[in-house]
Amino acid sequence: MRRSAALMLAWLALAAPAAAELPREVARAFLDAKVPLNRVAVVVQRVDGSRPLFSHQPDAPMNPASTMKLVTSFAALELLGRDFRWRTEAWLGGPLVDGAVQGDLILRGGGDPKITIEQWQAFMADLRAKGLARVDGDLVLDRGHFRLPQHDAAQFDAEPLRPYNVGPDALLVNFKAVRFTFAPNAAGDAVEVKVEPPLPQVALGATPALVDGDCNDWRRSIAASFINQSRAAAAAFPGRYPRGCGERDWHVAMLDHSTYVHGMFTAYFARAGGSFGGAVRDGRAPAGTPFAVMESAPLYDIVRDVNKLSNNVMARQLYLTLGAHALGSPATLEKSHEAVRRWLAGRKLALPGLVIENGSGLSRNERMTAGGFARLLAAADASPLRDEFASSLAVAATDGTLERRMRNGSAVGRGLLKTGSLEGVRALAGYVIDGTGTRWIVVAMVNDPSANRANAPLDFLADWVIRNASVWTRERH
Which of 99, 137, 240, 377 could make a disulfide contact with 104, Cβ separation 3.0–4.6 Å? Predict the structure, then answer.
């Protein structure tokens, strides 16, 4: 006990100068979690306040993880407009005779961040409805709307099969992901494994044996094996699957972008009643009027997925679109950086220390200050697009990345927040509403190896503001 007390006193002594800016309970929450306060940045202020209620290291540039998506999504709403839509176009590379195009079918991507399987099926049905029954040539993909260096899915964390590591592409379809679904079959004597989408380039090998037992580390027990190459992939699960798991999903990023689109077209054009047996290659769409167009969901829907679900590749697609919209196609990261710089300058919104690499927060190089986030959130609250922005944030204990957090405190249904999480990084930024209806900006970032312990104090901060900020203001003033 003496040693523990001495260590705690030493810890408090070390942190005392910084902790003085924070309410005692808030500082204690971080210290109890063994998160050093010199690696924490916090700002809390009323949305209409001219200065923070309290702050701690507000000007320290920190890695924000996925809270960087707040910059990207707010810039997109203001620069592109709430109703902006992306276009994916189909062109015929030859005459259409008796339902057959005597040549190639060309698909031109416009950078749509979210082409789902359902939307793709509707696109294939539209091609058929317009009279296309057979493609005699190849599938030609025009992906030139984005000009980017070669993407290495393993570079960030050596996990190239994880969907969060998928790189952006002008013709991104279904996030380039394959879903493996496991469930006991109807007879209850084997495991049924479904693969969606049913890409011909993805082979399924052994399936797991069904065994009795609780669902613990089921992914380890099925002994998954993946072979992932640019043009072909395979998966096998020769282990055991506990009956107590019921139905489970495993999402894996497979193939390269071109092969994935080729597989999607082959599978779903056939399902729509079409015929195609050609190869895939890159090319350019001709000038003129496209044969068919698939429009995206409106931007205000897209930013909800970007922020609530913290989708990295959608955020990257959105960030690249800013550059193409402002400075013309093809989109490049340099154009996007310039578009954001001009937007901030035009708004007179100072974000010193801001470093954007790709706009998603999946980066070791991106930086933001807690004070900068507070200014951004205040500007968003005063914007005509306030509702679209705020509704894109996860609701505490309700949906998105906060669905399973803050369930036992005052923040339930009262927090609209963006989370951020990387190894060594935890962050929270957004708005909370207290019992008087007062809205508060809450920003907190932790950059330290102890960050994996920081969710509890971050959640406590949001809860504390809802319960105490108004009273604490009166007591201090």
Answer: 137
